[in-house]
Amino acid sequence: MSITAAIVLYSTTWFMVLLMVLPMRGKTQEEAGHVVPGSARSAPEDAGIAWKAKLTTLIATVLFVIFYGIITSGWITIADLDRLRPDLGPSQVQD
């Protein structure tokens, strides 16, 4: 795996995890009892972005290590993922 592929894999993993972590521990302004004039009642009271970014980085790093290990070990290949077109995998040279 090239360094570019690793960066793309980590970035994609990080943003996917972020989208799952963002709704966690959410408390709206209406639930907190303090609605800022001009904002929606459903707006977050305190988004806690720093905590969520740290949690996202931790989870994404663990997942990246797992994905990297699976990809570089060859445990799962393109041929395993595409059963309809087995010719997309590594070519089999017969003597």
Description:
The chain crosses the membrane at residues 6-24, 58-78. InterPro entries: DUF1467. It is a single chain. The protein has helices at residues 3-21, 29-32, 49-73, 78-81. It has a domain at 1-24 and 47-83. With 95 residues, the protein is an all-alpha fold.
SSE string, helix = H, strand = E? HHHH
How many runs of DSSP E, i.e. beta strands?
A: 0
**Which structural class is indicated by helix and strand composition?**
mainly alpha
Number of helical segments with 4 or more residues: 4
Please bin the fraction of helical residues.
Answer: 40-55%
Q: How far apart, in Å, are the first and last alpha carbons?
A: 29 Å
SS strand fraction: under 5%
List the quaternary state of the chains.
single chain
Q: What does the radius of gyration come to?
A: 21 Å
Q: What is the global morphology?
A: elongated
Mean pLDDT: 84
Low-confidence stretches: none
Task: Describe the main β-sheet briefly.
Answer: none
In short:
Pfam families: DUF1467 (PF07330). With 95 residues, this protein is mainly alpha-helical.
Topology, element by element:
Elements: H1 3-21, H2 29-32, H3 49-73, H4 78-81
